[in-house]
Amino acid sequence: MLTDEEFYALFRDFKRTAFHLEMRDKYGLDSEEGPFQRFMRGEPDDYAWHAPWLKIVRDVTTAGKEISRARIVTVPHSDYTRWSLANAPLNIEAGEDVRWLPRHEVGNIELPPQDFWLFDDERVVWTPFDADGRFLGSFEERDPRLISQCRSAYEGVWAIAIPHRDYV
Predict the structure, then answer these.
(1) Res. 132: pLDDT tops 90
(2) Domains by residue range for the chain, with CATH
């Protein structure tokens, strides 16, 4: 398992591209629970909880690197997906390319079993969650076949995923 420091170092060290594939309709990250509950109650958010990630995105994209994310989502959307749709403009403003793909449009794309990050098309880090959406840690993948599967999933999903501005 990667430590938080090792995981965040990946964003400093990659050369060109970092892609994240998210395939769950709900995540149970502790840092998001309060903001998500405020969203559900219709209360405003100061987004302080999101500032560290937005800084990483700004730093990386200012350096000329690309960060992109595709979210495969069920339609109709879960409450968590609606919240993610509402927050995506912050990521985009920071420099991240965010796209959406309705689950029923995935077709024959072979998806890996877990969410992952793909760095420079050659390094995969799994970001698995349990059935309740709790994060289980980050794990680097070294099997060339699985790295190739993740690369193929990225290419297939990205080719048909819908840019945020067109999805909402």
Answers:
(1) no
(2) 4-167 (3.30.870.10)
